[in-house]
Amino acid sequence: MLSFLARRLAGLAVTLLATALVVFVVLEILPGDPAAVILGVSATPETVAALRTEFGLDLPAPERFLRWVGGLLTGDLGTSYGYRVPVAQLIGERLQVTLPLAFAAILLATLVGVPLGMLAASRPRSLRDAGVMVFAQAGLALPDFWVGILLVLAFAIGLHWLPSGGFPGWDAGLGPALASLILPVIALALPQAAILARVTRSATLEALQEDWVRTARAKGLGAAATLYRHVLRNALVPVVTMLGVRFSFMIAGAIIIEDVFSLPGLGRLMFQAIGQHDIIVVKDLVVVFAALVVVINFLVDIAYGIVDPRLRRRA
């Protein structure tokens, strides 16, 4: 098991290094000078040159890359060109919005999608199965940002139950902060719940065809007990895989949802950094997103061993 973890950690490091190199090269070949964008069209060449020197943009590309990677390893993410504050501070403040949003959305999607999938698989080709599949098809067809707009029209503008956007901050109290996240969480979770329902249904139907299910039923175990005590655990491996994949998509999908609801998260910071040509923030954010995805996949691998002891013994 230790050798397995060591290999995964080594792969994590190589993936992040390759991501950093690709991001740096891509942003290097893009047109535009961050110093000229910040100072505007009326800036003199001397002023632009001075700002380039201040940001280290006049250094050779290999040296800038090594300095940037060295800073990532030591926790020094540099200073934002536009905000003039440490990038680590910006990301830390925005993570307080994005991570609760993503975790709440994946939790809601799991609580809705997995039971619906089990419910549909317990009576295939029945009315409940058809209802769950209609929900799944609708969830797959509707983009999350469009669902968010519909939720705002219904619950914020129409009923005035919840705020339509913005985030008061955790300092304003737990109630107002959570109220501002309810609609974004629902908008982000519903399409993912639809996908989880389909995956759970398929995995459960496959597990129900196994010989040990017929043996359990022949020994007198009830249908519900067989389904929830034995079949569910065996059907969780593909579900856990999909949870890891969808959580990564939620981190990326939060970029659009945060813009729809005007939430000051990582997604909105990314939009602002691109608009301001704040290259250092864009580079650091892409690496942070990649690190989150790699870490989530690493945790999914560990979860395999918890869900299925056979995989743990093989490792």
UniProtKB/TrEMBL annotation:
GO terms under cellular component: plasma membrane
Coiled coil: none
Any Pfam family the entry gives: BPD_transp_1
InterPro entries: BPD_transp_1_N (IPR045621), MetI-like (IPR000515), MetI-like_sf (IPR035906)
UniProt subcellular location: Cell membrane
Swiss-Prot/TrEMBL keywords: Cell membrane, Membrane, Transmembrane, Transmembrane helix, Transport
The keyword Zinc appears for this protein: no
Domain ABC transmembrane type-1 residues, every copy: 95-304
GO molecular function, one term: dipeptide transmembrane transporter activity
Transmembrane segments: 9-30, 99-120, 132-157, 177-197, 235-257, 285-307
Annotated membrane topology: Multi-pass membrane protein
PROSITE patterns recorded: ABC_TM1
Family statement drawn from the similarity comment of this UniProt entry: Belongs to the binding-protein-dependent transport system permease family.
Protein name: Peptide ABC transporter
Taxonomic source organism: Prosthecodimorpha hirschii
